[in-house]
Design brief:
single chain; 954 residues; alpha/beta; eight-stranded mixed β-sheet; five-stranded mixed β-sheet; 28 helices; 16% strand; globular
Amino acid sequence: MDRLPLPRRRRPLVIAAVIISALLLISTPQPASGSPSIPRKTSKSPSSVFSLFNLKQKSRFWSESVIRSDFDDLESPLTGATSFTNFTVAGNVANYLKLLLVESMYLPVPVNFIFVGFDGKGNQDFKLHPEELERWFSKIDHVFEHTRVPQIGETLTPFYKISVDKAARHDHQLPLVSHVNYNFSVHAIQMGEKMTSIFEKAVSVLARKDEVSSDGDVELWQVDVDMMDVLFSSLVGYLEIENVYNIFMLNPKRDSKRVKYGYRRGLSDSELRFLKGNASAMQSRILESVGKVPEAVVALDKVKSKRPLYEKHPMAKFAWSVSEDTDTVEWYNACKQALENVEKLSQGKETADIIENKFVQLLNGKHEDMKLLYNKALKSGDFNDLHAECLTDTWIGRERWAFIDLSAGPFSWGPAVGGEGVRTELSIPNVQKTIGAVSEITEDEAEDRLQDAIQEKFAVFGDKDHQAIDILLAEIDIYELFAFKHCKGRKVKLALCEELDERMSDLKNELQSFEGDEYDDTHKIKAVDALKRMENWNLFSDTQEEFQNYTVARDTFLSHLGAILWGSMSHIISPSIADGAFHHYDTISFQLFFITQEKVRHIKHLPVDLQALQHGLSSLLLPSQTPAFSQHMLPLSEDPALAMAFSVARRAAAVPLLLVNGTYRKTVRAYLDSSIVQYQLQRLNDQGSLKGKLAHSRSTLEVPIFWFIHGEPLLVDKHYQAKAVSDMVIVVQSDSSSWESHLQCNGQPLFWDLRRPIKAALAAASEHLAGLLPLHLAYSHAHETAIEDWMWSVGCNPHSITSQGWTLSQFQSDTIGRSYIITTLEESIQIVNSAIHLLGMEHTTEKIFRLILSEERDLVNKYNYVVSLWRRISTTTGELRYSDAMRMLHSLEDASKQFADQVNATIANLHPIHCTKERRVDVEYNLSTAPAFLVVLGVLYLVLRPRRPKPKVN
């Protein structure tokens, strides 16, 4: 039977169709008005929505014109032609809807610079004038970008320089230089003479000897900063300026009996030595007094009256006002009486009485860290674990105030060897060495300097004969230079200056005598010029000029002071935060994992004060947040996988050290590599993430804290007791109670208690939650990375090195709140800008006019709602009502998403219009079109050519 020819296969036809389609797509250009996916070049339009987001010199803080409300006009049939014309002229949909990209948003920040002792009654009788303040302090940058610092890298050098990686390979969730800016409104306030006298009295009364065994003249004194805290808080409350950031600049007169003083919390080294040397007797005395609040504290706490400094903060770039003594007379009288009572109570007391009172004060104080430390030492009778804190001349209070005392110190702190931005004795301006050194000289010194100037000037004349006019002009030059340096602007006028004033009158008469005919024209011209110059002088008279010529010393001092105030704004008021997106959660669940070598019977037997730890972690939360805690014990002896992970992460490094005294030492330091720990713990976790199931729900954030308890000294990444990584906090605890760190204070090394890493744990936890960084770190635009400045590493907070305390300051609590707010604002700006960018890609054509007209109301309404939330959050934040601002964050997230969804839906409706309404496709031909068709024909011939059937085979 003959086999029939096989039917033609369909597979080559399919292949040919695919090849033809691909080649046509390559050779044929897209229609000119086709799909919206075609990239279009759009003209660059203005980027500001309103002046709140991009402050210009002539713009207002807010403009209502940004909110569209002309829908009734759009619906009127009489304006249809006009609307269509406006639509086509706009160029793209975003321009037609007047939706502009947001480049920057501004959050108001009110600041008070309060000057005490600058009214001519403080140290060196230094007086600041309004025009002087405005001339210098109005130059301070009043607009700061919110900045983020990249991940801090590992330091391998012995000089402890912080390494911050600024490589572009990192994917930043949010830009390092934010869209959100701080707009500072500075109000400078000069306090009166009575306020200066109160602070001078406080320094005198609250000061104790730093060295208790010294007799006679004492070189160094310590002022009780806890009592000063009560004084400052009382003043801030009295003036009702709690809702403003207050920086106090103090310039009290120096007491001749107190050559040098500083501020300290707790006891000094000599007091601790006395306490340890008389441990048994002092323990008995203190135990009898426990529970009794010292009378000095009671006296100062009674100052509770109030009188507002102003009705409302002048939200201007710079404002200046003077507080009269009548504004603070009630507070002055109450404080004066309280300080006098404190002075009476402290008179005649021996060293043991002073130490006892201070110890009891610390036990009954408001600082949990001091209570914990001193209570434990008191119960055991062993005071060897107590260490003195640094003496400083600056301090950050628990509330919204900080101060700089220019008469205290000077002091130094920071890395012991190497490092950058360390605090030195020249870091703050010194009134004594600048204003005092150049302004006043004695009569004898003035005469000597005048004689030196005369000899130097006339030495060039030599023995040659000179004209009388030349000698007179040389004499005038000498007197003019001397008067500018030593006569003008003095508090007490020199007698020599009065004599020179009389001599200048004689010189004028002699110059006028050269107008006679017996002198040639050259002499006359020189005399006339000299007389004109002398007519403009005011060198020796007592008349005050409207604007004085300030000396170089004053200008140098004021410029230095301005730099210090600028640093306070960039380091404590609006500091940089860590790189990342930090969101607000209603509940923070701290998962505490205590990893020990051997099994412990009960968690209460761990060498960790759980109550103090939980109290410290709770202080990191805002009033709108709720803490939750869970504790877990993980003994390495019962978990081989965890023990292996610990062993893998444990490493050793040879670290060369240069100590404060110049001694070289090489140590082998055991540490945990945070990256390895993180990787190993993630592998052990069943779900691959340690944040928990509800971590992304905006309701609960789980924070795993892995607390390694080890016998021998152990650190994290060679230099830290705790470290925050992306999804956990790592803490190490060792048995060493006095471990010498790489930091120093006033030439003495700082010791860490590795048995109590609560301070380091809270600092790491605050970085994990909200991005808080150590106070010495700040982003530098010039370096495009972080730089160090240890000036403001003070106060009893977790991020300070000069104190052992871990009480969070209100400055830092506000930074946490702003971090949450700015993250939401930044993400909202990104969503809105992306949506507006999509609308900007859509050209305004006749085909989409009706559809855009129908969607315009919804688009503009949703956009206006987002803008109104931005405005409300900015205003509320400027009033420092962060809790109220955070209640609007969820609404802002939803509103931004709804606007983006509306834009996406509108654009999705535009695409079918492009596809169905285009009846004709314009195809452009070029030189590549003909070869493409030849290739297609060749392929078709090869695929579809008729094939000869196979011969029949029986």
